[in-house]
Design brief:
The chain is α/β, with parallel strands linked by helices. The chain is built from 24 helices and twelve strands. The strands form two sheets. A nine-stranded mixed beta sheet has the order 4-3-5-2-6-1-7-8-9, with helices on both faces.
Length: 735
């Protein structure tokens, strides 16, 4: 790196000291030669950006993520509170800091208003459902229940039905907690910082913000903890709240952070190992993320050791293996069955490493061995001593085996191995960057060398009278050169514009096909059982009404359309990003290739129109390169903001499903029109930039300047040659 900067500075000084900046400007741009200070800054930023090891923690609520992180980072201290619901599980980032510090980010007022409006819809649905059920219960009240009892039964039934609407119910639950907090949302700011002196103090304060019953928990969107922990040096841990998050902005930030991770751990409960929710969480892991390692942790592993088929004759190591074997088998089977959903690279990542197990309860027991108060830990401890008495008979043996069950040391080894790989990757990134820039500087140096040699050769073979004659010749063909140069440039540009439009349209079409495929894959249906009173008909209606026998409750099944909105929204946003990249990337790539082609076209045109003897081919080439490198062509940017009607996540049902699909169809239609219009605009702007470039005048003026510079050098040939030889000597010393 130091040699690279030294070489860059030496070449930079040489060019500036010998007044070669303008002459070499085109060559500098072709080889992407940057000022030394800028090169140093870019290199340092590149290394710094890759420095931290980023670890993502995925897992459904109550999977044991907090217990695992408490064990890994805080040696088992319960620093991170456990969230009770998906909606209150804040996005948590852990990184190194000199002191205990927490930065809280709250939901914005707009986001809270969205939660509130969705809650109002839920409330209306709940009330209508409750009224219908209450009327039904009153109609067939055979046991003489009080009206308050019937109302409570109707309320529970209505809530049960609302819970089936997963996305809507999450909003309902969130706003109910906001109301229960007694805090006016408008009194909450955007952010807040907490400074603590100890883990105990930090834990107590965090309970208010991310604890299951914290007063600020329903307002907390994310939290960043800076902790003075050795293992967090150069490490960033991202504890995610999951996906299909109704708060779309939080889900998008979660996805963005996971995409930056070097390794990801999926924490899955041993008793419900790799269920559908776990697999949906893995939608965050895709080929574009660049995740280098993926591990599955079977949490709450101690619970598996009580099963009769596992405990056997009470040998702990054998029991651990018997409990672990079916989990490993399940891992292989699950991903084998889902293989068609992943590409080969992701499938290999998901199945490369064996299942890790963990037991947060074991760490809890170790830390509170002599004063165990937690009920769950006390129960687990009793089972372990009952089923494996030989391994937990005394404190020393018990703690050793509890550490084995916690498996934290093995998980830390995995992290250490990833850290080592990270260092190797950073070194490789640095080496590749330095090698690339060193190669560019060498090419630049060689071009300078060739230009200086050519200057010396020209001065040795040309006298001042020949140069003056050439200047006069150029003046006589000036208008012809201008006309032919402009024509050749515009013809070549028109061909570029045509090819560019064709390529852009083809790639954009492929992206819209991807959106359609994602939309079809996200569609589904579900059958639910509902009940309604059926009039038996015939007989003494008044008597059956009195006795409660007039109606009977019948179950019937209803099939509803469903839509998993999250993947569609993600596919749409990814497509928009791709559109932006394509419209920018394909454009830039084609323009770059065209700049190489136009040089040949211009040379051919000029030589055919004015003859070889009128123009020096090397000087023409150097002039054209400099002009083309400095032509300013249009840049392109794209707005990827989605309308609010598509800012949804989770499972949509019935009318909400239809509304989303209609909004999607409308947006896709508008987006397609916009991209088509933008492609036309790009090509039109390109055509205009090329036609207005006036390359003929620029060329002839630049060429005349070079000829006049040659004449000036020729007027004192010996001094000029000596100066150029001095430049060559200095060039040879630069490496």
């Amino acid at each position: 790196m130091e040699n690279l900067i030294k070489m860059s500075e030496a070449l930079e000084n040489l060019v500036q000291e010998n007044d070669l900046v303008g002459e070499l400007q085109g060559i500098e741009k072709e080889h992407d030669i940057r000022p030394s200070a800028e090169l140093k800054k870019v290199l340092n930023e590149k290394i710094e950006q890759e420095r931290d090891l980023k670890i993502g923690i995925l897992g459904r609520v109550k999977a044991g993520k907090s217990s695992l992180l408490n064990a890994l980072v805080f040696k088992g201290q319960n620093v991170l509170p456990k969230a009770a619901t998906p909606m209150t599980a804040a996005l948590t980032v852990l990184e190194y800091g000199d002191r205990f510090e927490a930065s809280i980010e709250y939901y914005s007022q707009d986001e809270i208003e969205t939660i509130k409006s969705k809650h109002a819809i839920c409330q209306n649905t709940l009330e209508n459902s409750q009224k219908e059920k209450l009327a039904e219960l009153r109609e067939k009240n055979k046991t003489g229940k009080s009206d308050s009892e019937l109302q409570e039964l109707a309320r529970k039934d209505a809530i049960k039905k609302l819970k089936d609407e997963v996305s809507l119910y999450a909003y309902y639950e969130q706003y109910e907690q906001i109301k229960q907090s007694g805090i006016n949302p408008s009194s909450i700011g955007d952010k807040e910082s907490l400074i603590c002196s100890s883990y105990d103090e930090l834990n107590e304060k965090l309970k208010d913000y991310i604890g299951s019953s914290g007063k600020y928990t329903p307002f907390t969107k994310s939290i960043t903890l800076k902790l003075n922990e050795e293992m967090l040096k150069d490490v960033k841990i991202i504890d995610t709240p999951g996906i299909n998050d109704p708060i779309v902005s939080r889900e998008e930030r979660t996805r963005a952070l996971i995409a930056q991770c070097d390794t990801v751990f999926l924490v899955s409960q041993s008793g419900q190992f790799l269920n559908d929710v776990d697999l949906e969480l893995l939608s965050n892991v895709n080929e574009k993320n660049g995740i280098k390692e993926f591990h599955i942790v079977a949490s709450q592993f101690d619970l598996q050791l009580s099963a009769p088929e596992v405990k056997g004759n009470g040998v702990l190591d054998e029991a651990i293996q018997r409990a672990l074997t079916p989990l490993s088998r399940q891992q292989k089977n699950v991903f084998e069955n889902k293989k068609s959903s992943y590409n080969d690279k992701i499938y290999e990542q998901l199945t490369l490493f064996d299942v890790l197990y963990s037991s947060g309860i074991s760490t809890e027991i170790i830390n509170n061995y002599d004063d165990l108060k937690d009920k769950n830990a006390t129960h687990a401890w009793g089972l372990l001593k009952k089923h494996y008495p030989d391994y937990f008979s005394n404190k020393e043996t018990a703690i050793s085996n509890l550490k084995k069950l916690s498996n934290i040391d093995e998980i830390l080894k995995v992290l250490e191995n990833v850290r080592k790989k990270k260092d190797e990757i950073i070194k490789q990134i640095t080496d590749d960057f330095v090698s690339s820039k060193k190669s560019a500087l060498n090419l630049y140096k060689n071009e300078i060398d060739a230009i200086i040699h050519k200057k010396i050769e020209t001065l040795n073979s040309t006298d001042i009278e020949e140069i003056k004659a050439q200047i006069n010749k150029i003046k006589s063909i000036k208008s012809k050169v201008v006309i032919n140069a402009n024509a050749a440039f515009e013809d070549s540009g028109a061909e570029l514009s045509s090819k560019l439009k064709e390529k852009l349209n083809a790639q954009i079409k492929a992206l819209f096909d991807d959106i359609s495929n994602a939309s079809e894959s996200a569609k589904g249906s579900e059958t639910v059982t509902e009940t309604k009173p059926i009039d038996k008909g015939a007989g003494f209606l008044w008597w059956r009404s009195i006795t409660g026998n007039r109606y009977e409750e019948k179950d019937y099944q209803v099939t509803r359309d469903t839509l998993n909105a999250g993947p569609i929204r993600i596919a749409l946003q990814d497509a928009i990003i791709e559109i932006n990249d394509i419209l920018g990337g394909v454009y830039s790539d084609n323009v770059r290739k065209w700049k190489k082609t136009i040089l040949k076209d211009l040379l051919t045109s000029l030589q055919e129109s004015v003859g070889d003897e009128a123009l020096d081919a090397d000087m023409v080439k150097q002039t054209v390169r400099s002009i083309i490198a400095n032509i300013s062509l249009p840049e392109f940017s794209y707005d990827a903001t989605l309308p609010s009607s598509l800012q949804k996540s989770g499972k949509l049902v019935g009318s909400e499903c239809d509304e989303f699909l209609n909004a999607l169809q409308s947006y896709r239609s508008e987006l397609r029109k916009k991209t088509s219009s933008d492609i036309k605009a790009i090509c039109a702007t390109l055509d205009k930039a090329i036609s207005n470039a006036n390359i003929g005048d620029k060329f002839i003026n630049s060429y005349e300047e070079k000829i006049e510079k040659l004449a000036k050098d020729a007027s004192d040939k010996e001094a000029s040659i000596a100066r150029y030889n001095g430049i060559l000597t200095k060039l040879q010393e630069i490496n």
